[in-house]
TrEMBL record:
There is a cross-link at A141-G143 (5-imidazolinone (Ala-Gly)). Its main location: cytoplasm. It catalyses: L-histidine = trans-urocanate + NH4(+). GO terms for biological process: L-histidine catabolic process. This is Histidine ammonia-lyase. InterPro entries: Aromatic_Lyase, Fumarase/histidase_N, HutH, L-Aspartase-like, Phe/His_NH3-lyase_AS. It is found in: Cytoplasm.
Amino acid sequence: MVVLTGHTLTLEEAKSILSTNEQVIACEESIKRVKESRRAVEDIVAKGKVIYGITTGFGKLSDVYIAPEDTEKLQLNLIRSHACGVGEPFPENVSRLMVVLRANALLKGYSGVRPAVVETLIKLVNCQIHPVIPQQGSLGASGDLAPLSHLALVLIGEGEVWYRGKRMRAMEALLQEEILPLTLTAKEGLALINGTQAMTAQGVAAYLEAEQLASQSEAIAALTMEGLTAITDAFDKDIHLARGYKEQTAVAERILSYLEGSRLTTRQGEVRVQDAYSIRCIPQVHGASWQALGYVKEKLEIEMNAATDNPLIFDEGRKVISGGNFHGQPIALAMDFLSIAMAEFANISERRIERMVNPQLSDLPAFLSANPGLESGAMIMQYCAASLVSENKTLAHPASVDSIPSSANQEDHVSMGTIGARHAYQIITNVRRVFAIEMICALQAVYYRGIDLLAPATRKIYDQASAVCPPITSDRIFSTDIERMNAWLKEVQWDGLLKHPNENSKEMQC
């Protein structure tokens, strides 16, 4: 059970919400804050004060006064008119996390909604009613207006949801769970859609997969190094301490841990003096991407617990301020950084693939083929990897450098953060397939070298990965191998692989 307070949601809890049907509950103290801010909104309406979004229109229409008797109609019109997202829906688990993040933001007590709004959001999560939310249509400022409007539709019994494995009308699912749809009152529609929860939910999903891939990259690279009889001197701790980046040093240490006990790696001068950059500079390149991941993680942890709607209510209503916390720029930049960092993992991985398949760059059989000439072996797998890497270069173009004014130029700078988050996830999906190809090639390379010569840690990886993709003894439909390896990498856990090879306290598992 995850307790939502508005302040303490962690990435680990978000991971549980994304990957399981973890239930959530609202903290009682937070509900008290929600009630206090709601009283302030009701006072504003009763006294006819002019406050943006409560007694006025929206965006460029903020100068239009709305009478108290029209506040409910105003909120309903807002949700319906803004629900204009298009394209394929966000993955169901991302939609689920979006609902949780919106509830968590409202629980901070700055938004002026009734407790019933938060409670209904939580019911959706716990009953596994997940809004169908189109991915395209958000500018990432004024909040993720279009995506969150599709989320808000469900609260009023409109729109579509996923429920019990089926896509259906929201009202049908609500009736089955005996959840009454809400009639949104003053400020509530605006509070639901003024926020960055679409880009943040997609960003969290992307980051968690990116972190897993970054860890896997080191084990795969270690296996590749054995397939290429790589030199380990370049991973010596002193080199990396001399530069001073802790992430670079940590990557080098982990690579050496994977390779401890290997009889396939070499020392400088034994076979060659230096390896190519794609081998020798693994700590520098991977380490730099780990630095970027650290930045992204920090920003997501802040944003998951941020108040991102407008206006915000402070001091029990004595201070109501219109600001711009809905602007997605912090997450937009983080997502663009994530895209670039993950694209680099694939860039260098593809170069390692090339070194294994190109007979001019190693002494391995041409294209790792069992019968070069008659059979093509891994030749076109490298093509596939190159294609994915090239696609990533296009997707990694920063979304945040663009801005198109909206709402009659009132909203004249926007973040495009949701586009950045979506692109980051696409890149990560491509990276995993590039890693799958590197893994297949590395398995084949060490198969030729002699699997009995592998390090204990990489031998464990080999034994499990080769069960997914057996050695290439003749040409076959390699698309099947790539997709099977891709699926395995998405699910596999690498816990324990870095324990000392001679440690007997616990069996190392993948």
